[in-house]
Amino acid sequence: MRQGFRQSMAWLHTWSGLVVGWVLFAVFVTGTATYYRTDISRWMQPELRREATMSPEALAASADLAVAHLQAHAGGARTWFVTLPTPDRPLVELFWRNRPGTPPGHVLLDPRTGAPAALRATRGGDFFYRFHFELNLPPLWGRWIVGICAMVMLVALVSGIVTHRRIFADFFTLRRDKAAQRGWLDAHNVSGVLALPFHLMITYTGMVTLALMYMPWGVTAAYRGDQSAYFAETGQITRDRPATGEPGTLAPVGPMVARALATLPGPLERLTIVNPRDANSTIVAVFEEPHGLSHEHPQVAFAGTSGAIVEVLSGALRPAAKTFTTLVGLHEAHFAGAALRVLFFLCGLMGSAMVGSGLVLWTVARLPKAGAATGFGWRIVHTLNLGTIAGLPAGIALYFLANRLLPLDLAGRADWEVRAFFGAWILVAVAGAWPAPRRAWRLALAAVAGLFVAVVVADAATACGLWDDPAWFLGFDAALLGLAAGFALISHKVARFAAPRRARRAVPEPAPRMEAA
Amino acid sequence: MNRSSSLSARASVAGRLVLAAGGGYAVAAFTTALLSLTLPMPRAEAVTTATLLSFPVMVSIVVVAFAARSLGRAAAIVGGLALALALALRLVAGSPPFGFGS
Amino acid sequence: MTASTSTLVVGAGLGFLGLAALCLSLGRHHQALWPTPPDRRRVLGLRVAGWTLIALSLAAAIRLEGWNFGPVDWIGSLTGAGLLLIVVQSYRPRALLWLVPLAAAVTAAAALGALA
Known about the structure:
Helices cover 58% and strands 7% of the residues of chain A. By secondary structure, chain A is of the alpha+beta class. The radius of gyration of chain A is 26 Å and the shape is globular. The two termini of chain A are 33 Å apart.
């Protein structure tokens, strides 16, 4: 590495991009899907009926039902999370963590009766959301792996900018007529440069969302490691109220909900109930983010046993804290309306395309000469590429398909959907080892397109009687058909591009030379 | 490329990798801790600012580790920075408030 | 059309026109529409027009949405416009001949609607 700065950065870009590319592709794709997390959840539970706005009294009553359910079923948990019903999602969602090592509790209730909601069991869009930063691994492992990959991504972006010497001249260029390598390089450059502000923003802000986990040493130095003291001092959460160890009885929650609604404007989103059976229990009413870039939830904290307000948090962050919450807000894009959300989604797709085309470029640039066998390393990269780039979308399609086709009363139904996701992914990844690379690509991507069409067919066949808003469901299905068309198009293109030119020249008939390799 | 030069090239890459990951993280962590204690603003603000800066700091150290002309030079720059920051942190914190400054 | 959507249309329209001007100032793309590469005066004219239009799209986004959302909307709309432009000029470069006047008309209409 005794060459110039640009060469060393080109080397760094190639290899840093390759080693984390597969994870990054999965993170980008599931993150992009997460822009439509609530829509995916809604599509996956077509039984759900949306409603008019709930009155404060109805909201308070549903909170009381929620706490009654938790008292009966989650008495031993340290913290209860209650998500209150909204017109779009008229459900009470309960979540609680039991002892470490045991699975957390989770249930959806009908807000009027308090009985478990009659909906198909699914993890909906939340599955993609969590996969995006935990990869379905134990949280600590998943978050560190994603964080390290994000850091390497940032390095790859910076070194890629340095490497790309003709940014302006090539900005508008997609050469379709030149060699395969040129075409993939153009695709990589265009998807990378065009959405570069997005890529830099999303990678950096992604690390910021978990900054205190990746870089806790500021809090260690200044707060002796007490993160909740730090967060409370920045004004993002209410102050911790430690448990006394004395037993206590929770006061009725309904009146607290009513007082919270009278204290702060805006819709109430959820309740957090800490140490529910302690004399020093706390109930925090968390409101939806007010309209703005910044991710900050106004909150009212109550003493659980008396129902007295102990703290009100509403805006007024200092500059650094405001910067931090704005960066988190930019990452999540909760503020984005329909049109801006489409643009964020497109940027996410361009990020996926940048990572995917970069991975493919690595193999295309190292295609063996005609007649020569492919090396072991090349085959590994190729197989992982195909397994990730075609396998993950196949998994997503099968996840949707399983949602429509699995019996509604199947035990562990939500887990079976996830198994369908991984099953399809693994199957396609194994098929990627097929010794004819070009045909494997074409067939795998065509299969993905076919699977997305099958999802739409299955939806229309099994669920159209359940649609409460047919136009909305048809719109979602149209988007899925759009994805199918996209994959069919890429399948068609790849069939052209993945053919090695040198090999093609050596063998005039259309049968690809690679199949013999 | 003969065997010994490819071996030394590999060793150089491995060395830079260790420098970039370990040295980069150490410099970023020391910088964060130091700035958290010294930035002239309220404590929470200083910690937030320092933590937000830590990631660009780490990226620049990684770039330096791979761009430096030789492995020795890269090690001198990254190691020197880490050492200077650790010493400064020791001075600022008095007795080191956490394990790795000692 | 909500306020935010018309901001995006104005931003994307101005951005599309600006990026199209910059694109056409490059020899390769100029020759997709006209037989010769652009001469120096034309390059200069197109570049000035391009950057001016992009600056205008930023100004419009900030005027309509303020300093908070304006830059976010601006970058989003510019990215969308760039994607459209690149697809068009890679696959149907001659479509620019009618897309540019169309973009100008849509932008003007959306801008009038947003300011009214």
